[in-house]
Design brief:
single chain; mainly alpha; two-stranded antiparallel sheet; 53% helix; elongated
Length: 228
């Protein structure tokens, strides 16, 4: 997995490499999830309702409006969530606090896993209602392609969001590398260096002799007049 630092990211404040960021599997899955969500709710909104002999519009999935509403709801929320987590992926290396990084990873892991489950429910719901839809309710096979697209890309969304969940779990299990953090402690407070227990001062007294080592006892104590 990319990144040798805390929760899969490098040292806080490092420069972002756009090419390496786009090539990451997590980024690719994020973009695909964003595209798939557009296809699902876009297909239902544009062609998911038909007017069969009345002024009232009916959902093409067995005239069950709950099916259309469910597909649109999870699709729109997945669309917005993909944008949010994509921005979070860009900002994630700038987060210096280990606790904040952990919260972000837990949020991504929980949401991705939950949304993969909702996409599974949506796929089963839409497929079941489409099987119950009578061809007589769709004149000229109206909206059939949109219904199949919504079902297919709901299934693809299960795979992408499950992959994002796996990536988030890997980031969480990667844990923290505290050597990358020199200013922030785990709880966000600056680390306090302990006072050294050893004495930095030398206890032994060293006496250095003066540069002139004349014997004061042999030197004359006064001035003597020279004899001629």
């Amino acid at each position: 997995m990319e990144g040798a630092g805390s929760f899969g990211a490098g040292r806080a404040g490092g420069a972002l490499d756009p090419v390496a960021f786009v090539k990451q599997p997590q980024t690719i899955l994020r973009i695909l999830s964003w595209i798939f969500s557009i296809v699902v709710f876009g297909s239902i909104v544009n062609e998911g309702y038909i007017n069969s002999g009345s002024e009232r519009l009916h959902c093409i999935f067995n005239k069950n409006n709950d099916a259309c509403n469910y597909g649109i709801t999870i699709g729109v929320i997945a669309f917005l969530a993909s944008i949010f987590f994509f921005a979070l992926d860009i900002y994630f290396p700038q987060i210096s606090s280990v606790k904040d990084r952990k919260k972000a990873v837990l949020l991504e892991m929980g949401f991705s896993g939950f949304w993969a489950f909702l996409w599974f429910v949506g796929f089963c719901f839409l497929a079941n209602q489409w099987q119950r839809t009578s061809p007589r309710e769709l004149p000229l096979n109206q909206g059939a392609d949109a219904a199949r697209a919504a079902i297919a890309f709901s299934f693809f969304s299960i795979i992408t969001w499950a992959g994002l969940t796996v990536r988030a779990v890997q980031k969480y299990l990667l844990g923290t590398d505290m050597t990358l953090f020199t200013t922030d402690h785990v709880d966000g407070n600056p680390t306090i260096q302990p006072y050294p227990t050893g004495t930095a001062m030398e206890t032994t007294e060293t006496y250095q002799s003066p540069p002139f080592t004349e014997n004061l006892q042999t030197s004359p104590k006064g001035y003597q007049v020279p004899t001629y």
